[in-house]
């Protein structure tokens, strides 16, 4: 009886460790899995094709650009863009070329930081940006709801 009790006590930390780690993994994976499923349903319903990168950004390169001039963290990008929610609501657009008051790329949302590196000057890209790479659980009050998937159509006009 004492031997069985010692075995149970010795195994208890291992069992607890594995059960806790699985719950933590499932909790962190579920939101991204749901976002992926939502984006994939959207793509299927709209007969669109996109690539998913290792960060979870879905994108389609419409025009690759000049293949010479690429953005860096400190680049100031001049773009034409439209941002919409997955339900089709347009939430923001440039309506002309903008450089966001000389804001560097590293100060844009992570989805744009990743996506604009996939094209060069003159290129166009459509990005399906999960909340974690956009405005997260906060959103932008009265503009972009919390946990919103953002669809960004961006033309990279110039780089400084």
Please, could you describe this protein's structure?
With 160 residues, this protein is α+β, with helices and mostly antiparallel strands. The protein has a single domain (44-159), classed as Chitinase A, domain 3 (Roll). Helix content is 31%, strand content 23%. The protein contains two helices and six strands. The protein has helices spanning 2-45, 110-115; strands at 51-52, 58-63, 77-85, 90-93, 124-129, 150-159. A six-stranded antiparallel β-sheet has the order 1-2-5-6-3-4. Strand 1 (51-52) and strand 2 (58-63) form a beta hairpin.
Give the amount of beta strand, in percent.
15-25%
* End-to-end C-alpha gap: 76 Å
Strand order of the largest sheet: 1-2-5-6-3-4
Query: Sheet with the most strands?
Result: 6 strands, antiparallel
* CATH T-level fold name: Chitinase A, domain 3
CATH C-level: Alpha Beta
The topology string of helices and strands comes to HEEEEHEE
What count of helical segments does DSSP give?
2
Counting helices, strands and paired strands, the structural category is alpha+beta
Percentage of helical residues? 25-40%
Number of strands: 6
């Amino acid at each position: 009886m004492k031997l069985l009790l010692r075995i149970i006590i010795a195994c208890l930390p291992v069992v607890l460790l594995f059960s806790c780690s699985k719950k933590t993994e499932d909790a962190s994976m579920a939101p991204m899995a749901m976002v992926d499923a939502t984006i994939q349903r959207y793509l299927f319903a709209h007969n669109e094709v996109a690539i998913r990168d290792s960060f979870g950004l879905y994108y389609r390169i419409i025009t690759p650009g000049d293949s010479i001039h690429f953005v860096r963290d400190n680049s100031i990008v001049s773009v034409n863009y439209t941002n919409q929610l997955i339900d089709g609501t347009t939430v923001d657009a440039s309506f002309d070329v903008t450089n966001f008051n000389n804001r560097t790329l590293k100060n844009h949302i992570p989805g744009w930081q990743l996506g604009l590196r996939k094209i060069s000057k003159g290129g166009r890209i459509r990005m399906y940006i999960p909340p974690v790479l956009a405005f997260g659980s906060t959103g932008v009050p009265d503009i972009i709801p919390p946990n919103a998937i953002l669809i960004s159509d961006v033309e990279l006009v110039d780089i400084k």
